[in-house]
Write a structure and sequence with these properties.
Elements lengths: L1 H12 L23 H5 L23 H9 L4 H38 L3 H31 L2 H39 L3 H4 L9 H34 L7 E3 L6 E3 L4 H8 L2 H74 L4
Helix pairs in contact: 4-10, 5-6
Length: 351
Amino acid sequence: MVDAARQMLDELMGRNRNLHPSEAPKAVNWEDPDLCQYFLVKFCPHELFVNTRADLGPCDRIHDEEAKRQYEKAKPSIIKKQYEDEFLYFCNSMLNDVDRKILKGKQRLALIQKDHGPSSHYSRYREQLNNLNARIKKLLAEAEEAGTRGDVDQAKDLMILCEQLKDERDQLMSQQENSEKEDKSETSESDPNKASSQSPPRDLNGTDKCATTDAHSAIDDESSSNAASQNNLRAWIKDIGHLPEKQMEVCEVCGAFLIVGDAQQRIEDHLMGKQHLGYSKLRKAVEEIHLKRQMERAADDDRRIRDERSHSYRGFDSDKRRERDVDRERDFNRGSRRQSDRHRLSVTPCS
């Protein structure tokens, strides 16, 4: 707690807040071991997940903006590469943990879907119904906006598309009801007649007939109540637009469980949450560092190729220059021999 308060005061008032006015302030150096290396490279991961399940706790190093500016202006060096390597190692360890969490979540959902195989049909039906309802709602909003603008033709076209989607939705719901009826008929044909098999033994006084009548009336009442409840359930599904069971998925960024086709507000709340934003920032920072290093390697390769070519050109030029010097020397020697021969002939007396 004391260290956190000291760090907060250092960030707000500076590291030289306790110095006497007559004392010279200590110069800021980004290589100071008390500084947070992660903060100098990009950011400190301890600040991303505060008050969440992935909270790393407070950082025990100093976050200094002036030191960060000095680090960014400094030339590439071995120390800067070491800082980046440590930052990458820490971020990759956190991303590996969340990737394992995502994999386990997907395996868990796969097991759940395998155990509840028949519900996948309802899940697909619910997803299709949700998509149709969302599209209908969007088209109605666009048609209303077009009518407000005074664009009657566009509003009519949008309403036609909306009616087509409504017909498609009604057809989908009728198909679902028909499939439910077929399932019920198959179930009733496969089950034995429980009323006849469970009838009590006959009595000589004729009381068995009353008991049987009461049993049949109870069964009829129960079947009528079940039919009414099923009709109410269908009406509720038609009004709400989804079934009670939810199809889940795993977020590919933070590993959280999400509901497929959930409300847009809840999806936006998840995307703006600390965990999702934190892991997204980690992934983006790692990608940026890898991309920067790839560009640096490509630049180094191009520079090396240019140096090799220039060296080969210099070697070729030196060979050509050497050959040219040899030719000049040969020509000079030939010319000097010819001149000496002419001089000797001119000096020799005629006999």
